[in-house]
Amino acid sequence: KTILITGATAGIGEVTALELARTGATIVGVGRNPAKCVAVADRIRQETGNPQVEFLIADLSVQAQVRQVAAEFGQKYAQLDVLINNAGAVFFQRQESADGIEMTWALNHLSYFLLTHLLLDRLKASASARIINVASDAHRGGKLNFADLEGKQKYSGFGAYAQSKLANILFTY
Asked: pTM surpassing 0.70?
């Protein structure tokens, strides 16, 4: 199996990459810090004995870099069996991505949406492909405010996070 995991340098993503590497799967992680990506890949290879662990470098809050990850993946791998959209963060101060999109929305939701759509044909070509979108219970407090989706009029870090996680749930459905 070939598995692509975003946000694989820490937390849930890192543990997921480690445990799936133990099964012998080819692991392709995505992270934004090149040094951290190298260190995590080396550690996973060493701990699991699985040499098939690689990282692609990207800031997934930037849509051009999401597109680049999909293109790089497509050039290197003939199949994709599992896509795990995991990258995410909470920003307590409103920030905008390089694309001018509120950072939480850009990273936590739009990256899932765009990467999935860019890789969908490759996933469909795999007989038993799966897409896993990591969310959280925070979605229960989320409300999609289409009049102020990016929190330009009123921003709350937790509110933006909850909204992005609700969007992940709805996207999954």
From this structure: yes
Phi, psi dihedral angles at 104 (to 5 degrees): -60, -45
| Given 77, 112, 155, 161, the catalytic residue | 161
Residue closest to 132 by CA, chosen among 10, 36, 17: 17
Distant-in-sequence, close-in-space partners of 42: CB < 8 Å, separation ≥ 6: none
Element (H, E) at 30: strand 26-31
pLDDT at 138: 64
Task: Please give the DSSP secondary-structure letter assigned to residue 90.
Answer: -
N- to C-terminal Cα distance for the chain?
A: 24
Q: Is 161 a catalytic residue?
A: yes
CA distance to 56, 101, 142, per residue, from 139 (Å): 29, 20, 5
Handedness of CA 144, 145, 147, 151 (dihedral sign): negative
